[in-house]
Amino acid sequence: MSPSTGAALRLLAASVDAKAVAEIGTGCGVSGIHLLHGMRADGVLTTVDPEPEHQQFARQAFRVCGFASNRARFIPGRALEVLPRLADAGYDLVFCDGDRLEYSDYLAESLRLLRPGGLVVFEGVFANGRTVDSGPQPTEVLRLRELLRTVRESQELIPSLLPVGDGLLCAVKR
Predict the structure, then answer these.
(1) Which GO terms describe its biological process (predicted)?
(2) CA distance 94 to 32
C-alpha cells in the first residue's frame, strides 16, 4: 500500500469519526494500521480474511504499533460468508481490499452494513491503469468497470474516485 493510500484511509476514517470499521482483506495489516490511526480511540476494526496466517501477521503488527488487543476483531473466512453475519447499519466505514471479482457483492453487503452517512471504500480500482484502457480486458477489469458504473449511477451513494495508489473508489451512503 502506498503512503498516499494509507494517508487517505486515515483521513477517511477520521472524517466519519469512525468507531466501527469493517475491513475486507486483512493482508499483513498495513491498511488496518492506517484505519486504526484515523478511527476514534475507542473504535474497533473488524477485519475479515480467508487466510488465518494473514490475520496473525496483522495481529502482531497492530501490537507492535501499540494498539490494544480489543481494538481489532479478527474473523477468518471468505468475506461473502462472514459479512451477512455482521450487524445491519452497524458500521461507519467499510474498506474493501479483497477479491476484486467479488467487489460488486461487497458493495451490496456494504450498503446493508453502513449507517446513513457511512463510507464505503474500494482499493485498487484503477487495476494498474487497465480500467481506462480500451483494449480487451480480463474479467477482473470488466467487474471493476461494472462496479464503477454501479456506484456512479446509484441514487443511494455520493461517490468520488481518489487518484491515490492504485485508485480508491469512495462513496458516502445517503
Answers:
(1) methylation
(2) 11
